[in-house]
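Re: the multi-chain job from yesterday

Posting the exact lines I submitted so nobody has to dig through the queue logs.
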Amino acid sequence: MSFEYKVTGGDFTHAGYASSQVKKMLKQLGVDSTIIKRVVVCLYEAEVNIVAHAYSGTINITLDSEIIAMTLADSGPGITDIDLAMQKGYSTASPEVREMGFGAGMGLPNINANADTLAITSEPGTGTTLEITINLNSPAA
Amino acid sequence: MKLEDICSVLNGQLICGSDKTNREVTYAFASDLMSDVLTINCSNLLLITGLANVQTIRTAEMSDIDCILFVRNKTVTPEMKDLAEELGMTLITCPSTMFRASGELFRAGIKPLF
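And the result, structure tokens for all chains:
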């Protein structure tokens, strides 16, 4: 199965819609609740990152009985130093994003903690792509 | 502790989820930082927050949190209420500060996570 969702930068009203849809789908498929939570935490953090930092983005989800793969590609400022961005507490979020309860430099580390694999590629001035996979049959991260 | 008892202790107002006031809550976590909430792994949890926007509801959804207590009489918008009802959540507002609400609930037997 595969699904695609569009994300609009700055649209905090609809941020989380894709994550919500994926959560409902995984529940219907009978996936273990611990794994569902890891998937949606990764996806939601990444979705909010697009809303918070990028101009627009696309989420592609593919899954089979073994694995769910989530690719989030955005058009935006990109990340200059990915190692720095992965450090807890580092953030370039605007005051507006912080007022929404995000932008504390916890998103990427939290994704990394919940994903089985995480790959980040970015071109400053162009955009960022996150590739996240989670094994649907092993609860441990 | 039942949600109806939480309302009673804090002079809280039930915004939605009136059919779930018998639901028991064991733990509470107080935060305005949604990224922090997303790191929590616990069921049967009450979120105490002063952050009132749609993303508060979304964060609770992703964290498997079914009940949110908004302190300082924060306004729950129609969009927040609609989403919470769709997700089967209970929303409560109360006039207390986060510190007082947390203290009163701790005294009443709600457990901290850490």
